[in-house]
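TA notes, week 10

Several of you asked for a full example with nothing omitted. So below is the full record: C-alpha cells for the whole chain, then the designed sequence directly under it. When grading your own attempts, check the secondary structure regions first.
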C-alpha cells in the first residue's frame, strides 16, 4: 500500500502570514506593476478637441487597503492594495458609454502583467 501524505492547515497561522507587513508590501508592489502597464496603454485624447487630455493617464493611484473577510462568523481583517483611477470620467473610459468607446484599460493591464508572469 502506498503512503499517502495528509495536510491539515492551521488557519490561524495562515492568517498571521497574510497579515504580515511584507505581504501588504508585496500587494502594493504588484499593484504598482499593474499601474505601470495601465499607464502605458491608457488613452490620452487629442488636446485640440479634448478638454481633459491626459487626465485619465495621470490619475492612476495605488492605495493600501484593508478588507474584512469573515471566517466562521468572526471578522478577520486582511491587508492588500487597490489600483484606482481618480479621474471623474474613469468609468466611461473603462466601460464605455456610447460617446466614448470601451477601452478596458485596467483589465487589459491585468492581462498584460499576468502574461509576463506565466
Amino acid at each position: 500500500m502506498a503512503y499517502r501524505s495528509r495536510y491539515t492547515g492551521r488557519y490561524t497561522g495562515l492568517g498571521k502570514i497574510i497579515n504580515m507587513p511584507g505581504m501588504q508590501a508585496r500587494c502594493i508592489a504588484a499593484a504598482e506593476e499593474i499601474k505601470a502597464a495601465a499607464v502605458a496603454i491608457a488613452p490620452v485624447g487629442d488636446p485640440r478637441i479634448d478638454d481633459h487630455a491626459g487626465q485619465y493617464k495621470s490619475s492612476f493611484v495605488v492605495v493600501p487597503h484593508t478588507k474584512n473577510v469573515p471566517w466562521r462568523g468572526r471578522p478577520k481583517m486582511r491587508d492588500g492594495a487597490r489600483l484606482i483611477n481618480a479621474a471623474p470620467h474613469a468609468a466611461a473610459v473603462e466601460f464605455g458609454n456610447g460617446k466614448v468607446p470601451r477601452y478596458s484599460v485596467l483589465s487589459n493591464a491585468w492581462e498584460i502583467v499576468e502574461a509576463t508572469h506565466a
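Residues 111 and 117 are 10 Å apart (CA to CA). Use that as a sanity check on your answer.
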